[in-house]
Amino acid sequence: MRLDIRLNAIVDPENAGRHDLIDLARRCAAGGATLVQLRDKRSETRVMIEEARAIKQALAPLSVPFVVNDRVDVALAAGADGVHVGQDDMPVEDVRRLLGASAIIGLSIKNVGEAEAAPVELIDYVGSGGVYATVSKQQKNAPIGPAGLARIIEALRRRSQKPLPVCGIAGIDESNAAAVIAAGADGVAVISALSRASDPTVAARRLREIVDAMLAKRGT
Amino acid sequence: MRLDIRLNAIVDPENAGRHDLIDLARRCAAGGATLVQLRDKRSETRVMIEEARAIKQALAPLSVPFVVNDRVDVALAAGADGVHVGQDDMPVEDVRRLLGASAIIGLSIKNVGEAEAAPVELIDYVGSGGVYATVSKQQKNAPIGPAGLARIIEALRRRSQKPLPVCGIAGIDESNAAAVIAAGADGVAVISALSRASDPTVAARRLREIVDAMLAKRGT
Question: Taking every pair of C-alpha atoms in chain B, what is the biggest distance, in angstroms?
């Protein structure tokens, strides 16, 4: 089954704004997030596992899948649905071996070279960017923009037999989400656009409306 | 089988002195380390896995077991023999569930309260301290000294049906290793005493001689 990547909500204790992390995850999902990711680069392992278990429990009634950034150990301990890995994290081959065939595995792809090298048959979705400048993460490279995103999506389409969902990431909000979908993405990944909103449920709903309208135009 | 904890060599890229990390692990094992632990609190996950695989390969001809500090994901990916966890890392119950019955699991215990709460039936050894002041790690608590170590060992003996090997840790070198064994420990865990030595093999051999002589006196 093709993963629904229309709105990938990433929750991060360092970028949760005034919201409680678990409540933020719940409210994003209630507003229409189709995938939730926990991204925690600083906490002790035990805290990460507690966060992951609490988010998993909060999302269960909403049937929204949940992945953990980088940490396969945390995903395994908490029973998450999968992981999202970057190019400096565990190699996808090892992740698939450790998590099994049914786990969701997402991979970050920042340029065409990485798209051409990616083990596309082993992953369920791609997060691609940074599309725009962002405040949520230090960016080593200049934003690739919608045009750069389109080139990566094109490179992935040439390589993958199955349709591989791609979401754009970095600096995406209501003002530019439509351009990301217009570039060929299947969805958007957001941190600040949800965590900085006074009501993340409303913010998620608006982003979903924009994404859904653009996908409808494309006829997918 | 009771784990041989006489000389637990901990190798850490931040405390490797002038040695290459993998070569340091090999030389410690060649000199008589009975357990090697990789402790890396800073590197990206992919680098940690590469380090762990290289150490595992280096130790294989010497038949010295190898554990990874904290990171169950790295241990699984690299096929390490087990993990060493602290009180802020993954709970031991989860580690045992994920790694299976044959894995080596070590636990850090800093005081009698932690000894009384520890799931002793699920672990293979204990690292207890900080016994002395150390330069290898930031210490939150005052050193417990050999007397504090003896109290922890006593608390563990009251709780455990099986003999549970305990090594002292922190600030241990040739000058004080005998006192650690005299306090009741079954071995010593060291970082700097090996990594700062010009020849880690010679340093490991000397530490083993001290530990072995003291254990022989005790008749174990």
Answer: 45
pLDDT at A105 over 90: yes
Instruction: Respond yes or no: is residue B39 known to be catalytic.
Output: yes
Measuring CA to CA, how many Å separate A210 from each of A40, A52, A199, A217? 28, 29, 17, 11
ipTM for the whole complex: 0.94
Say if residues A184 and A194 touch (Cβ distance below 8 Å). Answer: no
**Could you tell me the CA-to-CA distances from B158 to A161, B152, B153, B175, B215 in Å, in that order?**
62, 10, 9, 30, 21
pLDDT > 70? residue A113: yes
Residues 6+ apart with CB under 8 A from B205: B31, B32
Chain A residues in contact with B47 (beta carbon < 8 A): 88
Instruction: Give residue-wise pLDDT tens across range B129-142.
Output: 999 998 777 778 89
Which CATH number, 3.40.640.10, 3.50.80.10, 3.20.20.70, 3.30.70.60, labels domain B7-218? 3.20.20.70
Q: Is A137 a catalytic residue?
A: yes
Number of Cβ pairs < 8 A linking chain A and chain B: 59
Q: Is the CB of A44 less than 8 angstroms away from the CB of B89?
A: yes
Domain boundaries, chain A: 7-218
Q: Does B88 touch chain A (CB under 8 A)?
A: yes
- Contact across the interface for B98 and A73, Cβ inside 8 Å: yes
Of B46, B88, B98, the CB nearest to A90: B46
Say yes or no for a CB contact (<8 Å) between A90 and B77. Answer: yes
Question: A90 touching B, CB under 8 A?
Answer: yes
pLDDT tens string B105-131: 999 999 999 999 999 999 999 999 999
Closest CA to B172 of B198, B194, B193: B193
